[in-house]
Structure formats: C-alpha cells, structure tokens
Amino acid sequence: MKPVVVVDYGAGNTRSVCAALTHLQRESLLTNDPKAIREAEYVVLPGVGAARSAMERLNETGASSALRKRFREGGSTLGICLGMQLAMERSDEGGGVKGLGILEGDVTLLRAGRVPRLGWSIVEPWGEAYYFAHSYAVNSPRAVASADGVTAAVRHKSFLGVQFHPEKSGSAGLDFLDQCLSLA
Amino acid sequence: MPLPRLIPCLDVAHGRVVKGISFVQLRDVGDPVELAAFYSEGGADELVFLDITATPEERVTMTSVVQRVADVVEIPFTVGGGVRSVDDASRIIESGADRVSLNSAALADPSLLSAIADRFGSQAVVISIDSADGVVYTHGARVATTIATIPWAVEACERGAGEILLTSIRHDGQRRGFDLELTVAVRDAVNVPVIASGGAGSAQDVADALRVTDGALVASIVHENPSGLGGLRREIEALGVALRPLKEGHE
User: Fold this and answer.
1) Residue B157 sits in which domain range?
2) CATH number at residue B116
3) Model ipTM over 0.90
4) Is the CB of residue B208 less than 8 Å from the CB of residue B177?
5) In chain B, what residues touch A168 (CB-CB under 8 Å)?
6) Is B251 inside any structural domain?
7) Which fold has domain A4-183?
8) Domains in chain B, number
9) Residue B74 and residue A20: Cβ atoms within 8 Å?
10) Does B27 have pLDDT greater than 60?
11) Alpha helices in chain B (DSSP H)
C-alpha cells in the first residue's frame, strides 16, 4: 500500500495524525510537495492552528493548487478540523481568509455555548462520540453530520471533512479513520 | 455542549510519574507513557501531565515523554509546568500535546498567553489557576499574590486562554469534594470551559462537579486503583451524569 500523504503546513500537531495512521498499520508521509499531494492514493489535510498562516503556507508551497487539482481528478482527501475549514470558500478567522473553495460554504465564529468548544460530542446521525476542539464552525449545504447543532462533517465527491479529531478520539476515532481509508 | 470530561492528572518528575500510584498490573508504575495508555484504554476523556520539577534541564526529558505519549495515546492531553515562552509551548505542541498549561509564567507575563494563542489558537492554551481565599497563588500553590482570582480568570481569557484549570488549594488533597462555590463563580465570569480541580474523593464528588462545569481533574482517586477508572465512570453515570459512551473493547 502506498503511504498516506499528510499535508505539512508548519502548524501544530501532525505527529498525532501520523501516530494514528501507524496504529492502523499505514505508512504516512508528511510533506508539502505538490506532486506527492496530487498523486497520493489518500491525503489527510490535518488541522491545528490559525487559518490565515495555514492558508498562506499552503499557497506559498503550491499545496493549495495541488489539493484543488487532486479534488478535480477525484483523489480522496480527508480534511480534519482546520483542514476541513480551509476547504471552504471563505473563513471569518483572522479578519477574513479565502479558502481552497473545494466546497461551497463558509466558516464563522461559534456563537452558542462555551468557546472554544472543547470535548467529546455525539455526532449524528452516526451515533458515535468524537473529540472536538474549535472556535470556528462550518456552514455548508454539503454538511452530512452534526453535533450539538454544529457541523461535524461535510462531504462533496471525493472530499470528506470532519470538524472533530479522529486521531484524538480513541478507538472510535481509529475505527473512523480506518473506514475512511478502506472506502477510498 | 460537549459531554463533561473526566481527566486524570499525572505529576511527572525526571520523566517519571510521582505521587502514589498504587498498582501491580503495570510493568513499570512510574512510566508516564504506560500509565497514560492504561488510563486512555480505561476511559479517560483526556489527560493532564504536570512537570513538577520544570527545570530547564528537564525540558529534554519532558519533550521525550510527550512524544512517546502522543505515539501511543489517541486521546487529547495537556502538558503543564515549565512553559515559560512561545518556544517552550511550540516544543510541547509539536511533540504531540494538544494544549499547554501556564501558571506562574502567565502571571509574570500575561502577554505570553496571547503570543501562544496567536500561534496555535486559544484551544491550545490553558490557564492554570491555584486559588485560596479569593486570591491567586503561585509557585506550586506556595506563594500568595494580591491578585484576585475572578478578575485574573477574566483577564487570562481576554488574553487568549481557551480553558481554565481551576484548583482550589484548600480542597486539594482533602478528598471531601470540589470547591463548587469557586468553580461556579469562575464559570459564571468567563465563556471558556472550566475544569475543576482539587478534592475528588468519590464518584459523588466528581458527579457534583460535572453537573456545574465542563470537566473534573482527578488524581489520587484514580491513581490508588487505576483499573477502577471504568467503575468510577459507571458510578458517575449512575448518579445521572452522562459521560461519553465508550466504544466496545474499552474496559
């Protein structure tokens, strides 16, 4: 099996994503190389950090256009947390940031409950609890799952985005990642 | 609202877990990585590691602990003790921790909170507050300040802290229940999650805290019997507090 490409944009916690893949006996390759991103069997766009600097980094390295091309060509991609938010058209974070535009929708500050939203919530209609850590949330016609009234997952063609962190969601999260990889 | 969190806290010194872990099933009771994996499998919602030595020489040791924990544990964890700069925070987060917790260093330089939040987001920044008689204590809860607890909690959040770890010094180690009055007062003053710490002696104590706030830190109550974590969860749920449902294979 080819390694799963984990997009490196210099922010935060990519180690945990790679560790989760290792648990699933999948090799991972942490890179921002456009060719590797475009040609990979499976790509994970992880997410911790600030939208603006993340997007700047993706643009500088050419990873942005590689991700868009990959999407047009039907390559499977999983966006996690900020990785899902970056795939939208725009985000209110950091004074407004233009996203990858892979999915219709935008990203706005959470208005209800305590912010940041930290902890485990049951994702419906899947009925499983996953771990969330975010202050902004996605509004999109492509939403396919929610938790506490917040978009928990979006799907459009070969792109799946999740607001929660499967790599931090215990055995439920590992099972989820495993399913994503096996369906791809 | 997310489900309330049950959070075991591990004190670490020189790369080893200290403070009363009584357990015979682990090969090495002092190994933070092995204990973390055990708690993770037993149903902890997340973990907190406090480096209680936190000397510059210990940094390398702690970084290695964080990396090894991140490689085997798939639940979120916070690391506190010895975070005195953005570089310290980066090192810990890049090693695989989800959040860093600051205490004395943030009091000495509150702008540190914003600097770390700007880089990693406020969900990665925890302000740890040790409180007694309405004021904040520093240096391992040994030194009283003149800073009032509630205004400090509010300021820390304004500056970028995304969670409060609130320890009531008078309740800590007493095992007679959390300081609910203090917890509620801080909870009502801020809009970030508040984790109650200090005083857990029974499932009832934890359930009482989880009814009023987002999470509860537990130490000796679980360390005395680490394999009893699943049982503790069930007792808390029997008292009417819903925790996250565990996947098959747990416990």
Assistant:
1) 5-238
2) 3.20.20.70
3) yes
4) yes
5) 74-76, 98
6) no
7) Rossmann fold (3.40.50)
8) 1
9) yes
10) no
11) 32-42, 59-72, 86-94, 104-108, 111-120, 149-158, 180-189, 203-212, 220-223, 229-238
